[in-house]
Design brief:
Bound molecules: threonylcarbamoyladenylate, magnesium ion
Mean pLDDT: 89
Helix content: 25-40%
Strand order of the largest sheet: 2-3-7-4-6-5-9-10-11
Structural class: alpha/beta
Length: 338
């Protein structure tokens, strides 16, 4: 049977059926495709970790259809959560809150990350199955997040089903904010800008940038270990901020003049990713928009195309400074980490 199905009534029914049977299913959100599982089924959640080769210390985001359902999963729903949910849900924002005591852990110690996605297919699926869905990005751990159904199948060849909703509108994962602390702390920059969040809740604590002394790094030797005891989890606030992430197969280098660097390279071995017109002979050039929203929407697809072209090295133009490019700089920096 075809594993990529249209997100029509029949497709939604089949997906919901799988989820109720504690299997998994990929579905589109406005950010990236997620690999969904009944959030409180140990069996379904284990299948997510297995399929993704995701280390067990990295917790999952739970997706629900309404803010009221989100609140029911929380032990406390602080004022910042209420304000942010009112303004930005459904949308690309995940809130980390204290988990209701009756719920099993999802990899986090006492907290849970929750969001209400804005994609009509994601919302229809949540309603159809009637379950809170844990859904990490539907890619193999550390590789590029999928923004099309085809990306999902290629990254997770054993996925049982993908609901096809076309290309994701935003193309960058949700912004993750910890509202258990005051002021709230940014854990992962993402599709919702810091400016929009600050306008609603005031100042934010920023996590230390990677590369500083407070670098959030993967614990030695734990990559891909599914049987990792919880006690060995890394001392980081958002475990998914492990340094290398979102990485293409090719080596990615962030540079300020890719065309000059590419000169003289063997044809076909080097690709360029840029938002500035760049002419380089014999080199695959991905020229993306100079508008950060449009650039973000196409970034992962462009990295997939560069991998498909078989280049060994991607020379990525340094993105501009400023908040609007924060999430893109974060993803490119992680993609370039060794
Ligand atoms: O846009 C998105 O957020 C997508 C779509 C599918 O919704 N999902 C996604 O999930 O990007 P994932 O698993 O690839 O990234 C989740 C991030 C990780 O950095 C993880 O460490 C962090 O959220 N996270 C999840 N639960 C957490 C918790 N309880 N405390 C701190 N960070 C948490
Ligand atoms: Mg991910």
């Amino acid at each position: 049977m075809n594993r990529v199905v249209a997100a029509d009534a029949a497709g939604l029914r089949r997906a919901a059926e799988l989820l109720r049977q504690e299997s998994v299913c990929a579905f589109p959100t406005e950010t990236v495709y997620g690999l969904g599982a009944h959030a409180f089924s140990a069996r379904a959640v284990a299948a997510v970790y297995r399929l993704k080769h995701r280390p067990s210390w990295n917790p999952l985001i739970v997706h629900v259809a309404t803010a009221a359902e989100a609140e029911a999963l929380a032990h406390e729903w602080p004022p910042a959560a209420r304000l942010l949910a009112e303004h930005f849900w459904p949308g690309p924002l995940s809130l980390v809150v204290e988990r209701a005591h009756h719920l099993p852990a999802l990899g986090g110690p006492s907290t849970v990350a929750i969001r209400v996605p804005a994609h009509p297919v994601a919302l229809a699926l949540l309603r159809e199955c009637g379950l809170p869905l844990a859904a990490p990005s539907a890619n193999r751990s550390e590789s590029i997040s999928p923004t099309t159904a085809d990306h999902v199948i290629r990254s997770l060849p054993d996925v049982p089903l993908v609901l096809d909703g076309g290309a994701c509108r935003l193309g960058i994962e949700s912004t993750v904010v910890d509202v258990t602390v005051s002021p709230p702390r940014l854990l992962r920059p993402g599709a919702l800008s810091l400016r929009a969040i600050r306008d609603v809740v005031g100042p934010l604590q920023l996590s230390r940038p990677s590369g500083s002394s407070g670098q959030l790094s993967r614990p030695a030797g734990s990559s891909g270990q599914l049987s990792h005891p919880a006690g060995d989890a890394p001392e980081v606030r958002s475990p998914g901020l492990a340094h290398r992430h979102y990485a293409p197969r090719a080596r990615l280098l962030l540079v300020d003049d890719p065309a000059t660097l590419a000169e003289g390279s063997d044809p076909g071995t080097v690709g360029i990713l840029t938002h500035l017109p760049a002419a380089a002979e014999g080199v695959h050039v991905e020229l993306l928009s100079a508008d950060p929203l449009e650039y973000g929407a196409d970034l992962y697809a462009a990295l997939h195309r560069l991998d498909d072209a078989g280049v060994a090295t991607i020379l990525a133009q340094d993105p501009p400074p400023g908040d609007d490019w924060l999430a893109i700089r974060d993803r490119l920096t992680r993609a370039s980490a060794q």
